[in-house]
Specification:
Blueprint (H helix, E strand, L loop, with lengths): L3 H17 L2 H26 L9 H33 L2 H6 L4 H33 L5 H33 L6 H14 L2 H19 L5 H14 L4 H12 L9 H17 L12
Helix pairs in contact: 1-5, 2-5, 3-5, 3-6, 3-7, 3-10, 5-6, 6-7, 6-10, 6-11, 8-9
């Protein structure tokens, strides 16, 4: 049985290997960031001509946080899927299987690799798109950095829950039912769909179609019910928690951050998946 030091060394080795094999991601992100900087510079210069004291409102926090949530979720999901499936394409799967390794070591290494690469790539894009606004003092750099970091943390929570849930299901079924990459991507999507804004939009569209079918208009009472249901279901989304935390930090709201539901559930799923992740199922790399 491996010691903790051996496991940490193995995880570090896998992370370093994954990160070093992705220089193209940094080059592409830097190129996109450079182009974005020059495209956004005229907008920032125009905005700087009319200086004003930036004040956060619910209507400004939601779209900015939504952009960051979508960006970090997309990069995290693609990066994790690439690292997870890359072992077969590179032929390194044999060396991993021959080494005394369990699924937890691989999962933690792939999650950390994805987090490192996503943090670097998304931060480069973050600076490229908004850097001119920060330099000219149009946007508060510290607040936007907080939004960026929070969205990344909440996306990582959603990915980790999906990945470790796949391990728990594999233990119960004796085989890999759904790959960690696929279930992680599903949870990344659900984390966005279950936000109050997304649920309200989806519910409104469904109610509008239903109202047209019945031949009656959508009433304000219907909208109030949809918003109430969306608000109740949104506690299941990590991004709802992240947005609420930022709202409290920016002085927009004094409401409870709703961490009492999603955080304990996430911790429970991750802990259970870790406990069941002692065995390495070989089809984890091909399903």
């Amino acid at each position: 049985m491996k010691t903790l030091e051996e496991r940490l060394h193995l995880i570090q080795t896998m992370v370093e290997k994954d990160v070093k094999l992705r220089p193209w991601a940094l080059v592409a992100a830097t190129a996109i960031a450079g182009i974005s900087f020059f495209f956004m510079l005229p907008v920032a210069l125009s905005s700087a001509r009319f200086p004003f004291a930036w004040t956060w409102f619910d209507g400004t926090l939601r779209p900015f946080y939504g952009i960051y949530a979508a960006l970090t979720s997309l990069i995290l999901g693609l990066t994790f899927a690439t690292f997870h499936a890359g072992e077969i394409r590179r032929g390194t799967i044999r060396s991993i299987i021959l080494y005394p390794v369990d699924m937890n070591d691989i999962t933690i290494a792939k999650l950390l690799s994805s987090l490192v690469v996503t943090t670097i790539v998304s931060t480069i894009l973050f600076i490229g798109v908004f850097g001119s606004f920060f330099f000219l003092g149009v946007f508060p750099a510290g607040d936007f950095l907080a939004i960026h970091a929070t969205a990344l943390a909440m996306s990582f929570m959603a990915l980790a829950v999906g990945v470790f849930l796949a391990q728990g299901l594999a233990h119960l079924a004796g085989r890999m039912l759904v790959s960690p990459a696929a279930l992680g991507a599903i949870f990344l999507l659900l984390a966005i769909v279950f936000t109050e804004t997304a649920l309200t939009f989806i519910g409104t569209q469904i109610a509008s179609l239903s109202a047209e079918t019945r031949g009656r208009p959508l009433t304000f009472e219907d909208l109030a019910v949809i918003q109430s249901i969306a608000r109740d279901l949104s506690v299941l989304s990590p991004h709802h928690v992240g947005g609420r935390i930022l709202g409290i930090a920016f002085g927009i709201t004094r409401m409870w951050a709703d961490i009492h539901v999603v955080v304990p559930l996430a911790a429970l799923v991750v802990a259970a998946g870790y406990a069941f992740g002692r065995k390495l199922y070989l089809d984890i790399f091909i399903r």
